[in-house]
Specification:
single chain, alpha+beta, 5-stranded antiparallel sheet, 8 helices, 57% helix, elongated, transmembrane helix, membrane
């Protein structure tokens, strides 16, 4: 019972961490301190999407590995001698240094897939740690669990950054109609009003024409009207990650 409670607590805290990273990258792109407004329910809702997609990736990763690598070969995989040789310890250190440099010097969206690739050596090393090996003897489960643990925060940050970019570019699925509570805001077909979020009974709107972030108090007499965006992307594209 105590072990199950500990696992549940750890999963909950990890989900909270993922949601926090998403919040920081998404709202931080607008220089907006969301933590002045967001409550615990906001954290829980924002964690659902990245966690759900990560679990899908987890299942796909296990399935692909099981199909491509024979089971008898996986059964022969043994933990490395620990601590590992110096040459093997240098690889994760170089990877971490590369991640720091990429995140510090690069502001384009391609920094996220590069960061994910650089994390793989550290994930591989971590999966062979004796403690991790004792906790999860199965190679498939161990390797994919470590990958999810390390890559999910990166994925949450990438999704937050990409969502913010779509808002700024005016390519979100829905845009704000220039009526109701948003009647006095500047909007053109080329530069629509985009919806950022709703916190503490306040609508947050982005003016793509001016780059201003507008806060509008919710009102029953002047509702916020959302409409389909003709410029919308049906989904996140690979090219978005390479810009």
């Amino acid at each position: 019972m105590n072990e199950k409670l500990g696992i549940t607590t750890a999963v909950g805290l990890f989900g909270l961490l993922v949601a926090t990273i998403y919040l920081i990258t998404y709202w931080g792109s607008f220089s907006f301190d969301i933590f002045q407004f967001a409550g615990l329910t906001d954290f829980a809702k924002l964690a659902i999407q990245p966690l759900a997609v990560a679990m899908l990736g987890f299942v796909l990763g296990m399935t692909i590995t099981a199909v491509l690598v024979p089971a008898e070969r996986l059964s022969r995989v043994q933990p490395l001698r620990w601590p590992p040789p110096t040459t093997l310890r240098i690889i994760p250190a170089v990877s971490v240094l590369g991640i720091i440099l990429v995140q510090t010097l690069v502001h384009a969206q391609w920094r996220w897939p590069v960061t994910a690739v650089l994390l793989c050596p550290a994930a591989s090393m971590m999966s062979f740690h004796p403690g991790v090996h004792r906790l999860m003897p199965g190679y498939l489960l161990r390797m994919n669990s470590v990958l999810v643990l390390l890559l999910l925060p990166v994925f949450a940050a990438a999704i937050g950054s990409l969502h913010a970019k779509m808002v700024k570019d005016g390519t979100t699925t829905l845009i704000v109609d220039n009526t109701g509570v948003a009647a006095n805001l500047k909007s053109t077909p080329e530069h629509p009003l985009t919806y950022v979020g709703f916190v503490s009974d306040t609508f947050v709107i982005y003016e793509t024409a001016t780059g201003n972030l507008i806060l509008l108090k919710q009102s029953d007499t002047a509702p916020l009207v959302l409409k389909p965006n003709p410029k919308a992307h049906s989904s996140l594209r690979l090219s978005d990650l390479l810009e």
